[in-house]
Amino acid sequence: MSQHATEANFDGLVGPTHNYAGLSWGNVASKSNVSAVSNPKEAALQGLKKMKTLADRGFVQGILPPHERPHIPTLRKLGFSGSDADVLAAAAKSNPVLLAAVASASTMWTANAATVSPSADTRDHRVHFTPANLGAKFHRSIEHEVTGRALASIFTDEAYFAHHKALPSVSHFGDEGAANHTRLCSAYGESGVELFVYGQTAFDEAAPAPKRFPARQTLEASQAIARLHGLTDGHTVFAQQNPNAIDAGVFHNDVIAVGNGNVLFYHDQAFLEEERVLSEIRSKLKDTDLQPVRVSSDEVPIADAVSSYLFNSQLLTQKDGSMLLAVPGECREIDSVSRYLDKLVAQGGPISAVEVFDVKQSMRNGGGPACLRLRVVLTEEELGAMHDGVLINDALYERLTTWVEGHYRDELTQADLADPMLLDECRHALDELTGILGLGSIYDFQR
Ligand SMILES: NCCC[C@H](NC(=O)CCC(=O)O)C(=O)O
């Protein structure tokens, strides 16, 4: 039985400690901007502006809160002791990179927060959520617990929503969430095909794998998520990412492909077995034809795709059924990509409009428009059952903008991360935020 459903996008609000620490080997932007001075206030406002623009266009737009950073409980687990200020000072002295890791605002990239399967696809007809363990990078491996709490406090009703724990946090089950998961369908409320893209097979050392940069997602992790969510084989496709793409800086599939409805917009270097993947999607997508929009290396070399983040765009269905591609500003700064975008719209295919967003603060850490959002397809009933205090409207946008203006710094260096005042500012701000959003006590310092 199908119902009308909507795609809601939940953007991660950038936290007060947004900084450039160069923590993500394999993510070209993160490494090239290491130690640059960041502007957390501007970063958060850029994100809010994107949310507001899309909400104004009629898209359902939600927000996921930033986490408590620097995360003192993690430092205590690692043996630092004394007052919170003592812990910070000792960590800064002993290992500034470790301090930067527990201070990262990386929860802003909610495409990595979790994998979500809509109720039309799952055996028990509930929406299933599994927070990603993000075990490939230490600074991200500490996100899943609080992410799970935030999701559970927004999607509380067990009649509609099912929450799983993150997978075991070892490399065999490396899971990076929705960034490696694409749902294709005829309409959001119809059962679709869930495409899981992985970088490596953990239990087969002979299988193809990247040589230079790490593969963050394993086949075994993707298969486990599909089992947990109660997806059937007939509606699930597993595809290996091209190892050469990972070695070229494509650390998540959403840096080289994006899908929406029956459209798959992708680069010719995205998949290891392109033909097989497309034909399996076609055969499993029962009530509609797949519309591939393939970009060739001749038109957009992979290096340009990576530096522009062309594919890290949001592909959104507008009221009239046509699709809007929400791209980062960098796409208009790179000739091959800008030319391609003009051609894409002119050729009259499924993507009829391009809109540019300035998310430069996030881009400098390797996060474009699509990294900043988690998609949750919801029926009318599910939308009615969720906590609506996190949905953006004019009033919430104004309130959050004022909140950012009042609490965030406009300059942050690596040395500032050891400042005990920053920790106080962050906790104070987040305490107010859970009040604004009506989320209850989700942070460790509130418990
Ligand atoms: N989906 C986009 C994720 C970007 C994220 N960058 C970072 O964590 C960089 C943080 C730093 O280097 O300070 C990552 O690589 O997982």
TrEMBL record:
Origin species: Marinobacter nanhaiticus D15-8W
Binding positions (substrate): 21-30, 112, 139-140, 216, 254, 365
Residues at the active site: 176, 252, 371 (nucleophile)
High-level lineage: Bacteria, Pseudomonadati, Pseudomonadota, Gammaproteobacteria, Pseudomonadales
Keyword Amino-acid biosynthesis carried by entry: no
Residue intervals passing through the bilayer: none
GO biological process, alphabetically ordered: L-arginine catabolic process to L-glutamate; L-arginine catabolic process to succinate
HAMAP family for this protein: AstB (MF_01172)
Enzyme type, top EC level: hydrolase
Hydrolase keyword on record: yes
NCBIfam families: arg_catab_astB, PRK13281.1
Recorded family membership: Belongs to the succinylarginine dihydrolase family.
Protein name: N-succinylarginine dihydrolase
Gene symbol of the encoding locus: astB
Pathway of action: Amino-acid degradation; L-arginine degradation via AST pathway; L-glutamate and succinate from L-arginine: step 2/5
Function in brief: Catalyzes the hydrolysis of N(2)-succinylarginine into N(2)-succinylornithine, ammonia and CO(2).
Catalytic activities: N(2)-succinyl-L-arginine + 2 H2O + 2 H(+) = N(2)-succinyl-L-ornithine + 2 NH4(+) + CO2
Annotated EC: 3.5.3.23
SUBUNIT field: Homodimer.
Source taxon at top rank: Bacteria
Alphabetical keyword list: Arginine metabolism, Hydrolase
Gene Ontology terms for molecular function: N-succinylarginine dihydrolase activity
Pfam families: AstB
